[in-house]
Amino acid sequence: MAAPDVPSLSPDIRPCCPATLCGAFFCATPGHERGAATRATRTSMAGSKLEMNQDREDHAMSAIDLLLHLDHLDLSVAAPRAAIALAQRLGARLDALYVADLPATAFSLPEAVPVQLEETQRRVAEAQTHDAEWQGVLSARGLAGTWRVTQGDTVQTVSQAASGYDLLVMERSQQRSDAPVGFGSVSRCVFACGRPVLVVPDVSPVAGIGSRVLVAWNGSRESALALAAALPVLQRADEVQVLDGSEMNADMLPVLPPPGLVDWLQRHGIRATVETFTTGPSHAAGPAVLDAAHERGTDLIVMGAWSRSRLAQMVLGGTTRHLFMHGDVPMLVAH
What range(s) does the UspA domain occupy (predicted)? Predict the structure, then answer.
């Protein structure tokens, strides 16, 4: 059988590009115009790729999610101010979570359960009316986020909610002594949430946060976690001071890749001044860290929390316990 005749292609009608680029496999384009069109298409594609890469970089830089826990509805106090200031510095999303506390002990007396539930529902309904206020606060500062309201055991609820965020912000009252230091809601969330926590003392003035940072480094696992969590803040800080007290853990396996702290800071683009920190007895470290923060005008302390057990810190004293009890500077901690 003779082969069917195949019409010849005109010189001006030749394959030039895939259908995904021009809409058809064949383009009727004169040779010199076709070349120019191809170059223009490649240039356009290159430009689009650059824009896409830039968009990805910008998105990655701002893809930080903060969660602010609220146990009251006053947005003018220390913790909301600190969370807003940090979100502005990091270009982060900021969600607020109000929890109407309903602990398991509320059900220990059956006759009190209806009263407890009614009061909790009232608080939930009241909190839900503050959504517009929160959105107004964020909008005025060029931020985005949501207002979340729920009920339940505070520690369990906050710890579960925080699992999807990069950082949890909580306020710690210096006036209220409803639980021993280390066993209150903030400390229990530090242990339970698996996320770094910005602990804001209610007496903190919070003029700003993350500009002048003091890192209390002792070479422990907890301080390494805090250092890594604070990386976005440290990279944007105007001044970073490191108090290196790792000599106390010199017999332990180093928690940073060799050669150690100074190299790690340099490789992560952090300009820091490192000072050897010796205070004598471990219980003296807390007051010394706080004094150093005050002397340097520090607006944020970065440190590991509860490197020793909470019971040991209650009996023997410790840095975390002292700063939680007496500190007036926000602390970014991790455990």
Answer: 70-201, 212-334
